[in-house]
Design brief:
Number of helices: 12
Helix content: 25-40%
Strand content: 25-35%
Largest sheet: 9 strands, mixed
Number of strands: 19
Oligomer: single chain
Distance between the termini: 71 Å
Structural class: alpha+beta
Radius of gyration: 24 Å
């Protein structure tokens, strides 16, 4: 056995404000925990999630540990892993902000409060990160070398979260998201641990309070043959992506995550052995623009085999890119060629606005900005771009310059809420833009309150303009560039 000497590691960047801001961009208990597990499934086969709880009442969660038997994190990689935006790729580390933002979420939007300790052994270095000062990671000395490689990320929970209300839902959600990982030989276990003793709790019968996560996939029923098979399974191919599409119908009697429900038609999108979009209708909008009650039983999967779809910051959605549009068109063509549309009654007539996608609204806004000129003939807006990437590989809807001032536009087809405001401010902080514009049908009061009461005192030079359905800009974009009334 050997011990490691004390070390100080310098991070490439330490943008606490960015991590703390992104932690407010729609994270939940489940999506934040996903970020920690995503890092583990890259090389691990066994993952334990320990919820350290108070052993009474609703079992308040005080700490969370995610322990894996993967290859560990080298000391050099550790300085990158905790640097905001320093490590980006086309895998689970796509944006380089997920783990840091998740830790900040559990620390009540404060990464310093959320980070407890990170233990890791990669076969060479055994160490513990217990904090940082400036850009220096603090490494605990005298760490005993374990028998096998792996990593343990332990975070402090500064939020009011209770195990009694979460464990069953957590088990099922992990079964959906990591079903393919488990099917391919991986294991995920949830343990409730008494925070005062460090031992796994036991139930009234003396059994450990543990849950083994089982994979959850869409169930299929063919109404013609009355057998449990899908309606269609076929490879789809575009210039950048190869995927396997499966479409079917959920049995009438099925219960759980894939039970038939009103406007519940949708499929999972799976990439890098995890579900990045669950039971979503969005991939099917080129087949039929709008979900409908006749599609309540529609279920399925799109498994990405080759290529990579750029994801949203929390990796629970797909960015609206030309690549994604081509995939959706391929899905629509495959469904039509498979002649399965007759299993789903055609939707009712829909109004023009409901049939317009958010990506079309974004592009129409960009066209509108490009066309605006002063009486002198000079352009009001210059360098208009859509889906512009930040240095952390996050995509902003529209950016444009007016004179020497950069504006960041956030587009929402429906309601713009407080979480959307946090995301917009996060983009502005990242690119150092002081002006933001919200383009949405409805802008909720909580969004404006979030900016005025939370962000404005911190970022006094930042300003937000609102272009909602009552504004001239919103009406013009819809009527002139989309030929709809925006109703």
């Amino acid at each position: 056995m050997k011990n490691m000497a004390k070390k100080i590691l310098k991070m490439e960047s330490n943008n606490e404000l960015m991590a703390n801001t992104m932690s407010k961009s729609g994270f939940t208990f489940y999506t934040a925990l996903n970020e920690l597990i995503d890092n583990a499934i890259v090389s691990a086969k066994n993952i334990s999630i320990n919820l350290l709880v108070e052993n009474f009442g609703q079992r308040s969660i005080k700490k969370i540990s995610v322990i894996d038997d993967g290859c560990g994190i080298s000391l050099n990689d550790a300085s990158v892993a905790l640097s905001v935006g320093a490590r980006t790729n086309q895998g689970v580390h796509e944006h380089g902000v997920g783990m840091k933002s998740a830790i900040a979420y559990f620390g009540s939007s404060d990464i310093r409060k959320g980070l407890d300790k990170i233990y890791s052994y990669d076969g060479v270095d055994s160490y513990c990160i217990y904090g940082y000062e400036g850009n220096d990671l603090l490494i605990e000395d005298e760490i005993t070398v374990p028998d096998r490689t792996g990593t343990k990320i332990q975070i402090s929970v500064e939020l009011n979260i209770y195990a009694a209300q979460r464990v069953i839902a957590l088990r099922d959600m992990l079964g959906v998201r990591y079903g393919l990982f488990i099917q391919n030989g991986g294991n995920i276990t949830i343990n409730e641990v008494d925070v005062s003793t460090g031992y796994i709790m036991k139930d009234a019968k003396g059994n450990p309070v543990s849950s083994i996560v089982k994979p959850i996939f869409p169930p299929y029923f063919h109404p013609t043959t009355s057998t449990n098979v899908h309606l269609l399974k076929k490879e789809i191919t575009t210039k950048d992506i190869v995927g396997e599409l499966t479409i079917g119908m959920s049995p009438d009697a099925h219960e759980g995550m894939w039970a038939k429900c009103s406007y519940g038609g949708g499929i999972d999108v799976i990439q890098n052995e995890r579900v990045i979009m669950h039971r979503t209708y969005e991939p099917l909008t080129e087949w039929r623009p709008k979900n409908h009650t006749s599609l309540n039983a529609l279920v399925g999967q799109l498994v990405i085999k080759e290529g990579h779809l750029p994801t949203t910051p929390k990796k629970d959605g797909v960015q609206q890119t030309d690549m994604w549009m081509e995939v959706k068109k391929a899905i629509a063509e495959t469904i039509k060629e498979g002649k399965i549309s007759s299993f789903f009654n055609p939707p009712e007539d829909e109004d023009d606005y409901d049939s317009v996608s958010e990506s079309l609204i974004r592009d129409a806004l960009a066209d509108y900005l490009k066309a605006q000129v002063l009486p002198s003939g000079d352009s009001i807006w210059n360098d208009v771009k859509t889906e512009e990437s930040t240095d952390t590989n996050l995509s902003m809807d529209v950016t444009a310059n007016s004179g020497d001032t950069m504006y960041v536009f956030e587009v929402k087809k429906g309601n713009f809420n407080a979480q959307d405001m946090n995301q917009l401010v996060g983009y502005m902080v990242t690119v150092n833009a002081k002006q933001g514009v919200v383009f949405a049908k409805n802008i909720l009061a909580n969004a404006k309150k979030q900016f005025e009461e939370h962000w404005k005192p911190l970022l006094k030079d930042f300003n937000i303009s609102y272009w909602d359905e009552k504004s001239t800009q919103h009406k013009t974009v819809l009527a002139t560039y989309l030929n709809v009334g925006g109703k």
